[in-house]
Q: What sequence folds into this?
């Protein structure tokens, strides 16, 4: 009798395990997890087929638009006609959407864990400039006077994504650039370039994951360097730079998690806005205290403007790089 009970218990446990497997749908695809867990990265001219690892009686696929905020308040929407075991998505229409599937089998109904069609391969390039302290002065947005004998290290701020680069010393005449474009700096194909002469610098780069997917740095993101002998060059190497009245302290910059902005004398800023290079408002804080951290961890890597308004009505403008 004891042996029979053990055998029946084993059968029941096996039945429950099989039933649990049937009621736990999992999504799979060729690129799922290739770069990041629970994410699919594919190139913009390609498609990707999602499927479940088991078969079920019915299927309904859903998608939800990605949001930089947590929690994501965008609704899950049933995809019309998506009622088979597989779902084909593409880089033009489905980038930065989550996908999940609801299945039924006999008397069970269950949903899969969501997967994200990630925008990693679509991250736009941005440039960071490292100046030697005391050797430069910004005369206009993106325009700098630099002391003769100094150098400026220019870096692609997204080197993990981009591979082969084409660096320029002036604005190229076309996008993509012609191999004979006179603005090309011959032999410079890495993710950084050291400038020691005057010019307007930027780059064109192709992603390593999608070699045919290339991007040109926007014209307004190029940087103009004018090398010469200027009055402030007497401070060469001292670490001093000319202060600008319409700027605030932003640190750390570049940053990946949080930034601090402001000065103690202002105490509070009724409004702080982070704006991308196209002019789109990305993040805004009201009644910001100068000592409070601003969470930028969810912002896509790139270059941004920070516009801050003090309680006295003064407007400050800064550049900020999210890495």
A:
């Amino acid at each position: 009798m004891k042996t029979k009970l053990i055998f029946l218990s084993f059968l029941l446990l096996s039945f429950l395990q099989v039933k649990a497997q049937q009621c736990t749908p999992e999504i799979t695809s060729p690129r799922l997890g290739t770069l990041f867990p629970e994410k699919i990265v594919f190139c913009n001219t390609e498609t990707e087929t999602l499927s479940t690892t088991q078969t079920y009686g019915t299927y309904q696929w859903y998608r939800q638009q990605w949001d930089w905020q947590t929690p994501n308040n965008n609704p899950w929407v049933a995809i019309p006609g998506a009622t088979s075991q597989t779902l084909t998505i593409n880089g033009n229409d489905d980038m930065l959407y989550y996908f999940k599937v609801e299945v039924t089998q006999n008397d069970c109904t269950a949903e899969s864990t969501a997967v994200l069609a990630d925008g990693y391969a679509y991250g736009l390039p941005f440039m960071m400039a490292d100046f030697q302290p005391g050797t430069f002065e910004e005369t206009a947005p993106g325009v700098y006077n630099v002391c003769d004998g100094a150098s400026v290290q220019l870096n692609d701020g997204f080197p993990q994504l981009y591979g082969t680069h084409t660096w320029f010393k002036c604005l190229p005449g076309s996008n993509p650039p012609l191999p004979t474009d006179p603005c090309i700096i011959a032999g410079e194909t890495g993710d950084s370039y050291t400038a020691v002469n005057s010019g307007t610098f930027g780059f064109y780069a192709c992603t390593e994951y999608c070699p045919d997917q290339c991007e040109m740095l926007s014209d307004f993101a190029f940087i103009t360097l004018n090398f010469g002998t200027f009055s402030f060059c007497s401070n060469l190497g001292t670490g001093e730079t000319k202060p600008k009245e319409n700027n605030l302290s932003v640190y750390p910059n570049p940053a990946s998690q949080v930034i601090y902005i402001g000065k103690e004398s202002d105490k509070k800023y009724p409004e702080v806005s982070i704006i991308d290079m196209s002019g789109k408002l990305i993040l805004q804080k009201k009644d910001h205290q100068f000592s409070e951290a601003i969470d930028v961890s969810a912002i896509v890597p790139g270059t941004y403007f920070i516009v801050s308004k003090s309680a006295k009505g003064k407007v400050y403008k800064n550049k900020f790089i999210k890495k």
Remarks:
- Residues 2-22 form the longest helix (21 residues).
